[in-house]
Amino acid sequence: MTEHSKPLTVPELRAMKARGVKITALTAYDATFASAMDEAGVDLVLVGDSLGMVVQGHPTTLPVTLDQMIYHASCAGRGLKRAVLAVDLPYLTYANPMQAIESAARLIREGGAQMIKLEGGRQRAEVIRALAGQDIPVCAHLGLLPQSVHRMGGYRVQGRDERDARTLFEDAVLLEEAGAALLVLECVPAMLASEITAALSIPTIGIGAGPACDGQVLVVYDMLGLTARCPRFCRNFLVESAGIRAAFGGYIEAVRGQTFPAPEHGY
Fold first, then answer.
1. Selected catalytic residue, list 39, 119, 176, 186
2. Does 186 participate in catalysis according to the annotation?
3. What is the mean pLDDT of each run of 10 residues along the chain (267 residues)?
4. N or C end of the chain, less CB within 10 A?
């Protein structure tokens, strides 16, 4: 096995932050896409509940079930040799520590997850602490929270005003203290994401959060230009490539070379 194909681990993602190496992540929902990403050198493959929108055709992620996440995780996992496999806990499957542990155990045992991801700020600290206490690596998620779309009133940038920015920053610190191993920052101002990234010892993964994050993630269908309306924070990597595999390589090169995200992709 070559160094490039040697399996990554969750602690090695943290070591990449310490070395200043940008982490590359993409979503996948099946073995074929996951395998192509893995061969290109993507570090983290996320089986996101975004599948509810881009695969199932729902207007939100809320209808996605735990059984569906397990199914897609097991599919994607069979395509991986090197990348870390992270999987979303879907809506209302982690309302309390016991439910979260039971749901995460199924994602790991049946879906092959190496890390689970959940949304929310300080109200999730107890859940994260319980999961970490069971040696379950947790990726936290702050900023735009798709599972909270009704409370937020839509998919809007978060942390624009001083009070919200302070809350987001404090939440990030609290979630690291609770035991989170990784933090996704979605649709937050680039300056705020930069401040959070500098304050934490765990890696931050940005999506619409500027270039200072320790890594980047995109929904695969967005970065291939397949969605009807590409988000502002995305770039079509397929249009400038000779095919899908080349697009994944171009994405990795752009993230590592810090040419993506550019100023026009942030807030």
1. 186
2. yes
3. 73 98 98 98 98 97 98 98 98 98 98 98 98 98 97 94 97 98 98 98 98 98 93 94 97 98 95
4. N
